[in-house]
Design a protein that fits this description.
alpha+beta; HIT family, subunit A; 20% strand; binds zinc ion
Length: 165
């Protein structure tokens, strides 16, 4: 699969000095459009623009919460995790995944909007290329056309929709 180098400097610049990309997407700003997988009144699920693995998706609350421990209630946390789990099951079905990685990352200095990375690890990935190595854009991101991203999002969306809650 062909990879392109990741422009880390540019990404850091945008993350730290630009508006919240998730809030802009939720508000419908076309400059921040992503390939959607699912959404409801609380949650939005979409493909990462910088996938290091096929099917690399993000789950976010629509509202701009930042602190996992302090900004959302246990009930809100569990509701978000039920979306993460449903997406994980959909990804497992669509991709030949050995594991589903789930991480809540972000920074108060950039990308502060609470979000989860939900990522299928392809079966047969060499051990030394798994885990953090598999997720780091510094190792290059996969080169997909917009049409390929749209098709991937539609396939995951169909599996997600068909999945029982
Ligand atoms: Zn936000």
């Amino acid at each position: 699969m062909s990879r392109r180098p990741f422009d880390l400097h540019n990404h850091v610049e945008r993350s730290r000095n630009g508006p919240c990309f998730i809030c802009e997407m939720v508000a419908g700003n076309p400059d921040y459009a992503h390939h959607l997988i699912a959404q409801d009144d609380q949650t939005i699920v979409f493909l990462s623009k910088y996938p290091t693995l096929p099917g690399y998706a993000l789950v976010c609350p629509r509202q701009h919460y930042e602190d996992l421990a302090e900004d959302i209630s246990p009930a809100q946390y569990l509701a978000l995790q039920s979306v993460v789990h449903r997406l994980s099951r959909a990804l497992k079905q669509v991709f030949d995944a050995e594991r589903i990685y789930v991480l809540s990352l972000g920074s108060q200095q950039g990308n502060s909007h609470l979000h989860w990375h939900v990522v299928p690890l392809p079966k047969g990935t060499p051990y030394e290329q798994q885990q953090y190595h598999a997720l780091m854009a510094e190792h290059g991101v996969l080169q997909y056309s917009d049409a390929e991203m749209a098709a991937t999002a539609a396939t995951i969306a169909a599996a997600y929709k068909a999945m029982t809650v």
